[in-house]
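Hi all, long-time lurker, first post. I run a small reading group and we've been trying to get comfortable going from sequence to structure in the token notation. Rather than ask abstract questions, I figured I'd post a concrete chain and ask someone more experienced to write out its structure so we can walk through it together at our next meeting. Sequence below, copied exactly:
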Amino acid sequence: MGWLTINSFRTVVRVDGKGRITLPLYIRRELGIEEFSSVELIVDQVRRELVIRPITSSGEYLMNLEVQLESPEKVSELVNLIVESGSELKIINCIPNPSKCLVSVSVADSTAGERLVEALSSKGFSVKVVEE
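-- Answer (accepted) --
Happy to help. Here is the structure in token form:
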């Protein structure tokens, strides 16, 4: 375990019977996590660590996409199209063979999300919206 800085702290929470944890109010306030905010879970299997990182606030619309790529080189084009659409790229995880990226983007609303999917499809990307 690493050293704690003046800007960090630790706390212990319990996992309930459904596998859920409750983030204490002071942590939610400190990190700006509100009801319906999205967080990213980062799992390090070797170190057996779980990191929870806020990626949206409650007012943002998060959209998860599965995008098939013709080749790994198309990742940069995918990222550029997302940014040019006015969306904010939150997370991108790409898997080779076949080339596929799982993408989380913040869009203004569902209409903007539909426009993004149409824009990506028109450029030859196979896009599927992934429901949580």
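A couple of things your group might point at:
The first strand starts at residue 39 and ends at 44.
DSSP finds three helices and six strands in the chain.
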